[in-house]
Design brief:
The chain is of the alpha/beta class. The chain is 30% helix and 18% strand. The structure holds zinc ion.
Length: 295
């Protein structure tokens, strides 16, 4: 192939909607610039809590059809972001949503939490060898907030990067490839606090309450942030549209949104990244995930 874009990014997420909340503006920006943006989603999100009453029948204790519904929501979100390469780990439905931490669904043999690490990572390593991304984006070791599927997505992404680069892993199944840089999603504490303060000052919002900073996944000290991507107004609007496409899971109201707990939080138009397992370099944050890292 001669038309492979020079810049390639791989995003690994647990459920449909996580990509739009965490990385929507970033994905839209790089896709618009002609980079190859690949999304791998590890489950269909079958155990998510449904917000709109008219969709309540999709829930796992009723029709149990939330997974296929969310496949459609994700496809609509990717159209908003201009991302054409989105896949499910091992194929759609290979790994089921494990539910919240401590839920009985954590023990289902078909859930992602129960997947053997190297088996799940081998599916992703094959994608890494095919797409050959310079940049890999996933969660921190806690998955941002401890959800079993987010923790597992982190483990699988980190292991897949090792396997893809290892010539002894499935020799003959694609050329080994080492990603140049791995990032973990994060949100600087000052940004969260400013956003929540702005929401508290808004009289007219659509939510039952307002989130606390401790409710927001991936909050870190500002000094830990390596890259802050300000994708601009148009791509931020794409992100908001992508989040609206996940209507079973997200309620968007202007510059804010809520999940099924109906606690408002800021919809972040600037997205932030830590270097995996490393302190932020001197001069951080920079504005580009491909920018060279000062040593
Ligand atoms: Zn999730």
């Amino acid at each position: 192939m001669t038309d492979v874009p020079d810049r390639r990014l791989l995003f690994v997420h647990a459920h449909p909607d996580d990509e739009s909340i965490n990385n929507g503006a970033t994905m839209a920006k790089y896709a618009a610039e002609g980079a190859l943006v690949t999304l791998v989603t590890c489950t269909l999100g079958e155990e998510g809590e449904v917000i709109p009453a008219e969709l309540a029948h999709l829930a796992p204790d009723r029709d149990d059809t939330l997974g296929p519904h969310r496949v459609g929501e994700l496809a609509a979100a990717m159209r908003e972001l201009g991302v054409t390469d989105h896949r499910f780990l091992g194929g759609p439905g290979r790994y089921r949503d494990s539910g919240m931490k401590g839920a009985p669904q954590n023990a289902r043999p078909d859930c992602f939490w129960q997947a053997p690490l190297d088996e799940a990572a081998a599916h992703l390593a094959a994608v890494v060898r095919e797409v050959r991304p310079q940049v890999l984006v996933t969660y921190d070791p806690d998955g941002g907030y401890g959800h079993p599927d987010h923790v597992q997505a982190h483990r699988v992404a980190m292991r897949a990067a090792e396997l893809a680069a290892d010539p002894d892993h499935r020799p003959g199944a694609g050329e080994p490839h080492a990603v140049t840089r791995t990032y973990w999603n994060c949100v600087p504490r000052s940004v969260v606090e400013r956003g929540l303060a702005a929401l508290r000052e808004t009289d007219a919002h659509a939510f039952a309450g307002i989130a606390d900073a401790t409710d927001i996944p991936g909050v870190v000290d500002d000094a830990e942030v390596a890259v802050s991507v300000d994708a601009g107004t148009e791509h931020a609007a794409r992100k908001a549209a992508a989040m609206r496409a996940h209507a079973s899971q997200i309620a968007v109201d202007g510059a804010f949104f809520a999940l099924s707990n109906d606690l408002g939080q800021p919809l972040l138009r600037v997205e932030h990244y830590r270097l995996a397992g490393e302190d932020a370099p001197e001069g951080a944050p920079v504005g580009d995930l491909f920018a060279p890292v000062a040593s």
